[in-house]
Amino acid sequence: MKLWGGRFTKETDQLVHNFNASIGFDQKFYHQDIRGSIAHVTMLAKQGILTGAEQDAIIAGLSGIEQDIANGTLVIDGTQEDIHSFVEANLIARIGETGKKLHTGRSRNDQVALDMKLYIRDEIAAMDELLFSLLKELHLLMKEHLTTYMPGFTHLQKAQPVTFAHHIGAYFEMFKRDRSRLADTKARLNYCPLGAGALAGTTYPLDRDYTASLLDFAGATQNSMDSVSDRDYLIELLSASSTIMMHLSRFCEEIILWNSNEYRFITLDDAYSTGSSIMPQKKNPDIAELVRGKTGRVYGALISILTTMKGLPLAYNKDMQEDKELTFDAIDTVKGCLALFTGMISTMTIHPEVMEASAKNGFTNATDAADYLVNHGVPFRDAHGIVGQLVLFCEQKGIALDDMTLEEYQAISPVFEADIFDAIRMETCVTKRNTLGAPGPAVMEQVIVRNEAYLNEV
Ligand code: ARG
Question: Helix (H, G, I), strand (E, B), or coil: what is residue 349?
Fold first, then answer.
């Protein structure tokens, strides 16, 4: 039985039914659909549109349906077109005639707009929690590795020494911004569309502000046509989700490099690695690669909905049903990737000695050698040229700046004294970089204290 069969003389073609139906995926928000209906009915009774007895019967019926779906006794099958029809048909089957009053003053257009917003709000909370757990893990790593020296790169060429804490701290900032992007998305979506009807409101004396407050919204939406056709919040959510995935993907790329035989900065735990069916020696970083790979499907969801929305006249159009599957998939993908990524980095082994050796061997202290000359009165441009000669000398001998003798230094520039060796030690190079945001441990400690305060905010 269709909700809208009255003016039709023929049954819907089966293929048309299948093509049109959304129950295969919108059943995901049955809980939100029922929650919205209970609020709607509560408001209708307060306004005298339904009696108290009708309200009680409908709410009891809806609560029973919700429980039965949750415990598996009521199975959502494909006979109904969507979750809204499924719940309403079941309500009527359960409580009879009164059930037919549920949809008074409501359309599926404002109903689905509400359900989706409720669902997204819940999912934003779940995503935020996962980001928060990741941040806590990064915070621990930062505290542990304030003096774990490693090369910092530009152009993937060793550049200047940093610490592992500092490198991780960069991702801490990114995921912090991701949380605030989700919070912004929630703040803007947090207005209740219910009561907008199909597009032009209704003739019943609804109290929309009351419904909004029952559902913990900041208020009711202000224009009924916008209410049923706004999908901006999905675009914002998918944009924020794409950015989260981009951050995870960059991090995964680094983890894959660090875990490779060429770097050996870290070793991924066996529980987070996989083997090869042919090459017995292999231990592959599949999880990091999959997270990097899944970034594409989340970007795809964003582009898909932007494209779906671009030509739609006001107000509701069925095209909008296409907002659901890809959004659900994107949310599940982001949540899965965040959880796995956090597990992967909390179990990996870090090799500080390899990182430090790599920083030394890559001339990351060359800038500091030049600064040494500048501090002894050599103009920077000349100092740059002198250190260039040192690097060339070392490269020919296959050694680091730290391994040259004082005589060799002085043969290139008489300005060098014995204290050059202390000046170019990794510890000195990093400790001297003490401007806010730099890797020097003293200034990093301050950042860690601020991060700690951020993590303790409620
Ligand atoms: N399944 C529909 C959707 O996801 C629900 C709204 C249906 N409204 C309508 N006028 N057919 O958009």
Answer: strand
